Amino acid sequence: MHLLAVDGDDDGDGVRIGFVVSKAVGNAVVRNRVKRRLRHLAREHVPSLPGSAVLVVRALPEAASASYAGLATDLSRCLARVQP
């Protein structure tokens, strides 16, 4: 999993997180499952992120076969690098 973090404008929009899941991850069903899991996991981390953060999370092909716990660990590790 790759993470791109940008310090966004402090316009009151709060944290924005986007997910990129390419066709290399799998067919549409698999890609959507990965995105749903990542969105759910990201909600748990939003309170600990800087208020104006703009994040882009790119799922790698291994995400298709990763367990929910494995995705949680990877996402936590990536988001821990974002400084408040």
Care to describe what's here?
Its EC number is 3.1.26.5. This is Ribonuclease P protein component. Pfam families: Ribonuclease_P. Keywords: Endonuclease, Hydrolase, Nuclease, RNA-binding, tRNA processing. It contains two helices and three strands, in the order ββαβα. By secondary structure, the protein is an alpha+beta fold. The protein has a single domain (2-79), classed as Ribosomal Protein S5, domain 2 (2-Layer Sandwich). Strands 1-3-2 form a three-stranded mixed β-sheet, with helices on one face. 13% of the residues are buried. The model has no long low-confidence stretch (mean pLDDT 89).
Overall shape: elongated
CATH architecture field? 2-Layer Sandwich
The radius of gyration over CA amounts to 13 Å
H/E element order: EEHEH
Proportion of residues in helical segments: 25-40%
Count of domains: 1
| Sheet with most strands: strand arrangement | 1-3-2
Point out poorly predicted stretches. none
- State the name of the first-level CATH class: Alpha Beta
The overall pLDDT average reads 89
Please report the total strand number as a whole number.
3
Q: Enter the CATH topology name.
A: Ribosomal Protein S5, domain 2
Strand content bin: 15-25%
Tally the helices: 2
The biggest sheet, with number of strands, parallel, antiparallel or mixed sense and barrel status, is: 3 strands, mixed
- Structural class computed from helices and strand pairing: alpha+beta
- C-alpha termini separation: 21 Å
